[in-house]
Write a structure and sequence with these properties.
Layout (H helix, E strand, L loop, with lengths): L2 H71 L4 E7 L7 H4 L2 H23 L7 E8 L1 H10 L8 H12 L3 E5 L6 H14 L4 E7 L4 H13 L6 E4 L9 H6 L1 E3 L47 H5 L8 H6 L21 E4 L16 H9 L4 H6 L18 H12 L51 E4 L1
Parallel strand pairs: 1-2, 1-4, 2-3, 4-5, 5-6
Antiparallel strand pairs: 7-8
Helix pairs in contact: 3-5, 11-13
Protein name: C3H1-type domain-containing protein
Keywords: Coiled coil, Metal-binding, Zinc, Zinc-finger
Organism: Penicillium alfredii
Amino acid sequence: MTSPAFLERYRQIGALDQQKNELIEELLQRVTDLENSFQREKLDHERETRFNRDIQLHEMELMDQISRIKTIMDREPFVVLLLDGEGIMFKDEFLQLGEQGGRNAAKQLWTSLQAYVTGNFPSIHTPKIMTKIYLNVKGFGDTCARSGIFAEPSTIQDFIRGFNESMSFFEIVDVGTGKNKAHDKIRESFKLYLYNCHCHQIFLGCPSNNEYARFLEETLVDGDFSGRISLVEGLPFEKELDAAKSTYRSTKFPDVFRSTKVSPAWAVPWKSSIPSRTLLTPSPTQQFQQNPAPLSRTSSASASGLGVPLSTTTANKVSDPPDFQVVRSKPLGTTAPKTVERNKYGQRVDRLDFKSIPRDDLNRLKKLKLCNYYFLLGECPNEENCYHDHDRKLTRQELHILSAIARMTPCRFGLDCDDPECIYGHRCPQSEPGKKTCFRGDSCRFEPVAHGIDTNIVKVTKI
């Protein structure tokens, strides 16, 4: 073999060594890259492991917090009943019993609500039941008295006292006079309870008007809370609440609330089949059957001086024995003329000096719940079903005080009344001549025109 051949072979072997070295370098570089990649993946894995562990710990803490919050939210669950007294009225048999009727109404309402919640919301465990009723107490009492539900407007005060005392979370709130007073309070209370996690259901009883329909529609826009609201229907819903009735759950409590409107204002306070005591004038105690026989008054009642001032001295000198019965016998008739005394303006004047009546005696007689018709007129046309006392024996002084109590209830016909036997008041007994108001201000039950009446009698109308 020649030297050029050896040289060629050498060169070939050298080229192979070069390729081998390049291959080794590439392999070493590849190993280095893989090691670096591995380290990065290892770091990422370790970071994710720490992150996952932290997340798990944080999740456990959050779940513990949620559990504690849920426990707090589940404490003291309650449902609330918001009622507008204009649209929801208790049944007559509750209102007529005064304080005891208030207790009975509260008990029956609680029972009805408890049964409804148990049957429709089994997930709510032993909720407290709250009831808030908003109404104009003075106006409501006058309406009930004029409609014949009870004889004295003050009966509503006894009913409210019994209702409020019966349950810890039951209350009737007097909103006073003014338009939409009850609506405004119910609206704000509704918003407060709607977003309260402890309140699981709101029962809303209201009249059918645009104000309530509007804020019920606003509630749907703000969020779907229809499941948390139940409408309570007393009187049948009218067109204003038709849409709301189809959206919200609705219920009735017929054992508690009346489903019919009250009779027209100034209806008789007893059955319409009972004859009136007089046909001469349309006093608040008339409107019975035609051609009735007038009820007679007793001579004792006439002698007691109805409408005649009783001075302090005279009041103190009265010393009738405890068993003296003033009103009981019914004489066949009376020959004494019946008169109505008026001032120079033709306004009727009740001659009764309230300042001469001891305040303690006045309050004591008020609490006795005596029947004004029986003791002042001699007979109660509804004696069998009357809830007031007919059996007590009264002295002349007590009869005089009872006539003053009756005068505290305004007569429908006011200063124009010409019924000589009318027992109601025709002028504010607390006002003084010339003064157009009294210490009660706007809350007085008598109209402004019945204040400041001239008490000087210049003419007498004989009936």
